[in-house]
Queue: 4 jobs
Job 1
Amino acid sequence: MRSVFYEVANTSISRERFIDFTKLIGILFLMVNSFTLLRLQNSGGELFVSNLSVNSQSLMIVTWFTAGMSLFFFSMGFNNLIAWYSNVGRDGSQWNYLVDRINTLLGPVIVWIFSSTLVLNFLSRSENFPNYLTTSEDGVMSSIEFILWPLWLVSIYLVMVLFAPFTIYLHKKYPYATLLSLITLTILIDNINFALNLSYIKLFNYLFFWIAIHQIGYFFADGKIQKVNINVFRYITFFTYGYLFYQMSVSESYLSLASYRLTSLNNEDPPTTIYLIASIGLICLFLSLKNVIEKVLNNQKIWLLISHIHSNIYTMYLWHLFVFFSIYLLGLTTYYAPLILLIAAFIFGNYERSMFKLSSNLVKRVNPLQPWPSPIKARFSINNFALAWFSALLVLLGVIHLTLGGIGQDGFFTIREFYFLRSNTFEGIGRIFIGLLLLNITVRGLKYKKRILGGSILFIILSLFTRNLIDENLTSFEIYFSSGAIVLFILILIQNSNYKSKTRVQ
């Protein structure tokens, strides 16, 4: 932990401590909600999982003020735009940006996936480990899928990074029109009743809603929000929460913002207008308290405590539902949760702590209103960017599979059906590792490029072959997707083979 002490002692004057605090509190809200809103209990020989905010108005109100995912992605919007400016300030490339941003989060995630795969598959062989949970709607949920719920945050983060080069361009060209369009699309899609065969359109709100929250962070990074009178944020906070309280008094609408995928009726899956209003209100609430928060964070002891938690926050978040589940199975009280999370952070969080940085020297500003230096464009190469973007997409698909399908609980080659693409656990984990290898060879390890591309082609062919082992047919989309990936890798291989650098002395 000495590196954390060093970072705190040398924190740059340009550091936005408010953003670090907002990110930290956002994730802590998610963890606190899990321990206060979720309950596990035996019911007729089954393990019943319930969400207390479903039937409690007071707890519904609590979820409005603890919508931590929105705070997190607001802060990540700031961080991602700052990283973009830092990247172009170093004459960086668009694919380099993708690699750096994805590696920042995927490091602790990979450690967690590897560790939890071993632990969960070992525990699932025990007679005392309940493989399935019963929900309030008499549904059945895999225990491992429940424990892996934190991967939703990782999935959404990957989507934000994938679209970051495009959303940053839109922000620079049409900042207000872009944000207004995203908010309008979110509201329209949520409130239009689509025919059953068009119901998939609702899923686009995963994209429009979270990009809208992410874009608000861009405005903070550019200094536009700092120019707004603080009373404006107070008024917005008052009106947004006033609207939510009004809805509670006159409507029977479901208003909880914490679902954990336990009910079919919710405001998170996909995000709704209610979630949008509460998110804007919560962000404005924090912005209205910005000066007070920054004054508190200037205290060196408080900043040291915040930084220590910050340097382990992803690890603790990823493990928190595993700890919640374990506490129930072992018959412990929730008071043990902070201690167990602390132990998990020390055991599994070393990678995250080693990546923890507060005093970065990439780009420094005297104040947030100071304009950014040129160049304003990152270097671009179709081949490298296409490979990096598609590699990140493979990682995203792998993470989505593990989020929805667990880690081999029903067999390593058992097919799980998703919205548009099926896969088994072998393909899910393979996509993550292959995607990360391909992503990183765009900036480092170039001598292994041919081998990794060749190995990726073999992996795709092997994953298709595993379908034959279990007599599972491939859909047309899966065939086109796999064929397109192989063609892309072959084209890059051919172009890489034809490229030769020679130095001649005339």
Note: Residues 63 and 257 are 5 Å apart (CA to CA).
Job 2
Amino acid sequence: MGRGNRRYRAVEQQLIPASVFAAMRAAGPLPVPLPGSAAEWLAGKREVLNRHLGKVAAKVASDGLEDVSLRAGRLRVSPLKASTPDEAEGALAPMYAHLPPIRVTDLLADVDRWTGFTGCFTHLTTGRTHDDPRAVLTAVLADATNLGHVRMAEACGLVSQRQLGWLSSWHLRARKPMARRSPGW
């Protein structure tokens, strides 16, 4: 495999050779901030977990969990409260009225025309850009909005769920720095 394909390399190839590791262990404690054995590590994690569970149990017993109650074995969590004050919403409304209505897909296409950022999403092995920048933008939007590939494919009709999955797996990662272009304003 070529350079940079550590993701697909066998795990054994990424480890310190056994002879080097044995020599390091024989020389003294390993230079890592971890316990010497898995049992010690698990015991430490179990201790931290029990400490935190004890704190939660004490808060449950004293009804000290904010917006959470546990009664008769039923857990109830209150819905989140609005974090934006009503005054701020009222102040923003006139400003939003001055903004032109634009679809997010059109905005992404404009930004791509100005910057060429879809050119950064090259194929993992070939290094080529995808033939259809709209498909790349659709995959980016599916991931950015947490809509997912299935629902995005149903909503847009441009690409299938399978194509979006393929695009995400093979194209949605920056491979090289993008050359700066003039925005053309």
Note: The first helix runs from residue 11 to 14.
Job 3
Amino acid sequence: MAITTFGAIYIGSYEVSLKIFELSQRKQLRIIDHLRSRVGLGKDAFTTGTIGYEPVEELCQILKEFRRIMDGYRVDDYQAYASVALRDVKNAPFIIDQIWQRTRIRVEILSNSERRFIGYESLAYRPAFEQMIQERAAVVDVGGGGLQITLFTKGRAVTTQHIDLGILRLREKLSGIEAMVTHYEKQLQEMVDKEMELFRSLYLAEKNIKYVILLGDYIGEITKGVERKKEDGSIEAERFIKKLKKYQKKNTIELSPDAESSNEDDPLLLPSAVLYKRTVEEIGAEYVWIPGVDISDGMAYDYARNHKLFKPEHNFEEDILSAAKFLAERYQSYSKHTEALLETSLAIFDAMKNVHGLSRRERLLLQAAVLLHDCGKYISMMNQADCSYQIIMSSELIGMTHLEREIVACTVKYNSNPLVPYEELADKVDQQSYMAVAKLAAILKIANALDRSHKQKFKNVKASLKEKQLLITVEAKESLVLERGLFPVYADAFERIFSVKPCIKEKRLLN
């Protein structure tokens, strides 16, 4: 049985870690070493917008040692990711270059959605997770720079929201008043309450959450000793909240020994306790589950999935479509027209597969674009295309990379607007992605043209490619005069991109 040794390096806001795994094709993942070192990158990042010389020097020394350890274990492959601490600083490109020159480790900076998805992957291989999300569940992933809440129902993600309430960010915002007040924890709680109450009012109205699943920093340390009574390993929420309330009555120094922290005067334990407690209270779940995994575990599972070592039971693609549909419904744009477009656009995509050269993944992005193509009308009927673009780019669709979200948003935008030259989009997409946008938008335009009246005048759409002609056959329930009249405008754009002429073949249904 082949075994792959994999190293996962994660550069966080206040900690750098290395986990070394053994991965086998029997879906077995074994941790063989785990190292963690404190580096205060986030403090500089969140206060000055740059990271100074000393933290960078310390980071490079740690990574050089990580490189030596990985060589000692003879790792077959590694991945090194950095979080918000590097993503949001002005000198990030220079830091990444210094790391490579001095350690020969290539670091990739993750977007927020990519970071959260990798953490989420660490859950998807656990049977308890699949059971919990069949009911209403919320995954709360807390980091140094922010927290992410993803809501699930009937086994699918419906929305994910990022909130700037990370442990270190919260600490830095209030560091100036800590010595000025008697009850510092109350100021922490006020900061958390403002954001969490807004989230609850917008996304949790009439939603009874049974499970809240907690990922992130310090959660394992501050919940040691809490008895797990349920068979699935979860904790009664009341018991969890009661435990954390005790922490809020103590100052930072008193908190650490009780939490059995390795750092006895860690100033981040109190913000952690407040943040976790208020999040669980506002979500109002019955049970809390702490699976004990972190971003490094997610990196290992992500590597195994991408290299076809593991195949998760959970369908991540369905999460993307579920979240896109929820977003469309939120902006009152999901309709029978949307369902008709899904059928038509996928029929065209599949018929053109030998011409467009797009992958199964682009087919998924087309589905997401169809679901979201009208969402901007909620804001402006006049500027629907631009508003749709902004809505999509401002929303977290967990499971998509930032580039994929850009492809979807541009596909929607240029479904309505004329496609601009690549040079005008070069700062957003590469040439390959630009071609994907052009092709997906052309397909969506043709599908849209066939239901221009939004009356679904036909059914049973079939598409077939015959030489240089795409024949779209429909069974019409009523006259398609409007659609036929407007079709040539969209057909010309399609033909310019694919060198294939689309034609409508109408079969009239007998009454």
Note: Confidence is low (pLDDT under 50) at residues 255-264.
Job 4
Amino acid sequence: MQTNRIGCGRITPAFSRREMLLSSGAGFGALALSYLLRDAPVFGQTPVANTPGSPLSARRGHFAARAKSVIFCFMEGGPSHLDTFDPKPLVNRLAGQRIPDSFRPVITPMGEFYSPILASRRRWARHGQSGLWVSDWLPHIATCADDLAVIRSCWANGLNHSNGVSQMNTGSIVGGRPSLGAWVTYGLGTENENLPAFVVMQDNAASVNNGARNWGTGFMPAVYQGTRIHAGAEPIPHLNPPAVISPAQQRGRLDLLNALNQDHARSRHAAGSDLEARIASYELAYRMQAQAPEAVDLTQETRETQNLYGIDDPLTATYGRMCLLGRRLVERGVRFVQLFHGSGSKWDAHRGIETNHATNCRGSDKPIAGLLKDLKRRGLLDSTLVIWGGEFGRTPQSEQGDGRDHNPYGFTMWMAGGGVRGGQVVGSTDEVGLHAVEDRLHVHDLHATILYLLGLDHTRVIYRHQGRPERATVNEGEAFTRIAGT
């Protein structure tokens, strides 16, 4: 907001003309207009929850949804598709040679294709009735093969981690746009307003590339941003009030604080959303004191369930707790859960890929398989879309002798549950796994597909920013509807 400033022969007003009109009697016209257009597609969908005026009230989608919640297992740093879900025998046959000209694009970065091809040391086997190929690095996920739709033809624009992570989370290689989780929350709201609608967890203290921008709201109201909780013994610190403060005292303090904040918002911050989001966060924190402690209390789970997620093993305990918390949260109505594994680009394997990927696969394989199996046996997999993948894949060429470089041209992700037909392979890369060649799905297509499975038409989930209609897919992309079961 501008402030009064006198100098250099001019005066800057405290309010713009638009703010003056909205703050005066003409503002009633804006209220009337917003009421008349409340059901228009540009303003999202029709609220169906019982909380009038809440921006997080549950909303109907554009068509029948296959999934009602999402758990995104994000492998930060870029897992190698060539060593997990996309076997390429030609890579081993050409090991030590330069990549053939036939696999190179017309224009390439200088020196990119002069490194020799690096063989994959993986042992591959077909799994399940579908016969999906999975490497020996992921023996637990392999047992869930018939639930997976393995998308081998993903591609993106980000060549480095910052660009890639930003695009996979926000649709743009340039940070600052709303995250996918924020768009989902904006479009559908939440089924439980006593818990955050959008929750984020990391497996270590290292910062994910771009930090909180990955779960931020960009130009949308801050109320839709993700809430980060911890994976340790105390997922939500300082949740409970001191014993010396009674519920009545706490409610009175919160009411007074909200009244002061609302008055401040009306008088000084009418055009901003940060203060409104903070007010909403205070109210959410108060409501969470009733439900959140129970939701994040893993001691309520049986020993067998905890072991299913690998919580009994120090190597899998952290991500196992995150996956189990994810299941408990979607079970209680949380809309979007994002679980970062390898925070700080730990999957980045420019050298020593055998050690790097063996460690990361070991730490995530059993927890993710446990999540799929637990959701399935509880009848939640049909309504929960589980996604696995990173910001890009890795090249068939070697780097530093025993590693692989970034590869956004063609890589693998998979989806399970949420109406997805399991046991299928979507698309393909070329014979050396460098470029997506069949049923190529850009990040925008992936995001459009996720929204489609949630019952949203990505072209109709619109937020107007500075007069421009903005969409989650940056006004691009197409949903790959064939991924759904019939």
Note: The chain has three domains: 1-36, 49-236+296-483, 239-285.
